[in-house]
User: Fold these one by one.
Assistant:
Number 1:
Amino acid sequence: MKFMVIVKATKESEAGGLPDPQQMAEMGKFNEELVKAGVLLAAEGLQASSKGARVRFSGGERTVIDGPFAETKELIAGFWLWQVRSLEEAIEWVKRSPFHGETEVEIRQVYELEDFAQVMSPDHLERRKTLESQSWRQQ
Amino acid sequence: MIGGLMRIVRDVGLAEDMGQEALLAALQQWPETGIPTNPGAWLMTTAKRRAIDYFRHQSMSAAKNEELARTVAVLEQTTPDLAGRLDDPVGDDLLRLIFIACHPVLSRESRAALTLRVVGGLTTSEIARSFLTGEATIAQRIVRAKRTLAEAKIPFEVPRGAELSARLGSVLEVIYLIFNEGYSATAGADLMRTALCEEALRLGRVLAELETAEPEVHGLVALMEIQASRARARVSASGEPILLLDQNRALWDRLLIGRGLAALERAEKLARGKGPYRLQAEIAACHARALRAEDTDWERIMQLYGELVGIMPSPVVELNRAVAVGFARGPEEALKLLEPLQREPSMKNYHLLPSVRGDMLARLGRNAEAAVEFERAAEMTQNAREQKLLRERARKSREAEQGA
């Protein structure tokens, strides 16, 4: 299963400062571990909200609101996409991530195709056979 | 802890020794590194590692075969413990384990079961569910596999040199088998089966970090990533399979495609000829790069199938090549390639051959012949849905013939 691991913004990240070299090195090492364990799918850091914008929808109206945004703790500073076997495994990995000081990391499961299984036809065995016999075309 | 260890090594004295050693290691390391988050798990993992080292050391000695079976047994009985798994250095041990579980003395099915058990940490019942077989069958398969390994006196090591490529082929085959076993499952299917896809991808990604210089490892990873990227687009809401060219490409997972293309690039940089996985990945990449079906670079796909036929000759690959030729050069050229396949004994009951022939004939406006081919194909397949589809095509061809 996939999880998005969301790193919340801090005063520092919102100020637009880059992490210091030691923090970068620690994070690099951690990411390397994730890659070697076959866990890391993607990792991105986000620039300060002052460089972003929001579009608010209200009925037919669209209002553009320029950053920065006030509620720092609710903002996102970066995210990972992880492939793990359980929420517990994701939590265990997060506990090992090299964050110091006050911050919060949120773990959210990504919807998978199977989550929509109920709204799909149940005779999957027959489908499976069809797919197998046609798999040559699926390349 | 000793109790847990005893369950693993089945020897009180040994369990105690290992526990003692783990404690010693802790006394040496913790003052420097700080006490780990989960000290219990740390000790257990360390002790287990000592046990494995012990058995490996033993396996070098005369009683190699018996001890090897025990090594595998140790790993097999190790209850999946999360902290331990995360702590395990992904390295030589894991690699050895993969190579031994995928040893060519074992059948493909046994290799897959053993790999999932000792490398993937899946339970016997999970493996049974994912392969749609009974638990007893899987358990027996694993027992027999271990016996075979012991009898063949397989050393617990990573092969090098010339042997590596042969053995690596066997490892890649197993990973791809596990992947396909999961990939052929669809939306409504048992969750375990899709977990197989993920497990295969994980094994592939891990292997790619361990055997970085092997282009075929990256080729296989690329192939799996790109195939997995289409999972959401392969089945309609009502459960009908959707063929590649009819898929909604907006549903393809761009992240996985990106990863697949990156893996392919790694394989290309190593530039040591093209193996079958890399070639198949390149074909998959051609489709992945085309934002619309009509943008597909059939010329290139045709060329790649030509190369694939050269190193992995098989009637099914020939058939695929003919389809690509049909798109790149027209149906007449494709029909020429299909000609010899019709005499191929293994193709006698393969419904896709008449189905493709029907396709090409229909495109040439030879509707009466096309109808005959579609009918033949319908008779060959056991699948009701497909039968319906083929009969429908036969009917349309007949209609076109009468209208002409």
Note: The longest helix of chain B spans residues 12-33.
Number 2:
Amino acid sequence: MHISEGVLPGWCLITGWVLTSAGLYVGLRSINGRKIPRTALLSAVFFVASLIHVPIGVTSVHLLLNGLAGALLGWAVFPALFVALLFQALLFQFGGITVLGVNTFNMAFPGVVAYYVVRPLLRKGTTGSLIAAGVLAALIGVFLAATFVSAELMSIGSSFTKTAELAFLAHIPVAAIEMVINSFVFLYLKKSGIPLEV
Amino acid sequence: MDTATEGEKVETPLNGEGLLSRLDPRVKIVLFLVLAWTVALAGNLLQVFVFLPLALLFYSTAYRKTTTILKLLLFADFFLLFVVLTQLFLGSPYEGILIFFKSTVIVLFSLLLLTTSSVFDLLHALHHLKVPNKLLQITFFFYRYLFTVREQLQLAEKSAKSRGFIPKTSIQTYKTYAYFMGNLLLKSYFKSENVYKALISRGFKGYFPVFRHFELRKLDILFSLFTIIYWGVAVWKFYL
């Protein structure tokens, strides 16, 4: 869920940009040579995949996939998601430019956390550990992002308590679906034989 | 082989529309940032409304695209609708209205100042505005292959549908979508290897040579002066 323009107070927007700049600095230092086009193309995959309407009950949801992206890309998840969110803002006006720092941090930092938690499981490479990696990447990615969004909304004032609660609850079905999808993606990639640390 | 075809390119919604599209994108990006941050920091409705005439003036240059602009303003952002409605019914209605107008004015500035230039021109302008080159390379490659990746997904969906796949709430559906994504990741991984080898073989040094260069013209200077004076007076009278 991307926060729109005009919602958050100035200090929150500036903090978001500072944290994202730090993440981008580390992320860009970690990629060189062949990893530049690779990060860009995988970023395009996450951008396109997040536009799929995945059915759940009578409605459908869009996936965040930040846990999966983080597990595969490491710190490069910062530039990858920054670019994807920049294009969502430019092409569809989802999110926005002043709020791009906050939105990138909300999505990419949980991705980095997922990377450190999930990496040992991916290295192990058994079916059980890959499923566990998929579940953990979804839980960390989605719920940490939801916690950040809710905390930022709460920081605006007491009138935003209900908005923040509902925003958090809206992420639960997304996490449930991503647990299943991430696990199958890891199993698929393992079968295909490419290194899971891309 | 590259499957991207001309004409179906992913492009900014108002590219080439109206007078503002003829301005230097470097000028438009800087002015957008000044205006958007000022409105984002507004604390009351008056501070937002003072910029509405300027946003409407910009809009008048692209009035032929009213339907596109309205669609993007009204339907594009689910999150804004969610915040405004929860504020109107469960929180503070004033906050809801303030957020609605802040967002509308910033999105209008974004549509009319940024998206009237092509994506390539915006990236070129960001290079002149000293955005790190590595980040711009990622952005450029992302944009270059976005259409290809999208088309691959559409082909996979079409192929699955032709074999009787109907999306529903089931493990089979989620498994199918996961395999779509796995397949896209795999193809993109190998594609990126080929892109890298092609770049190396052509002596790529990290900079894309461009055919057309930006030139600051009289119109750009006049537009900048007008906007900065408007902004200065608005901030002086309503913000300080």
Note: The longest strand of chain A covers residues 54-56.
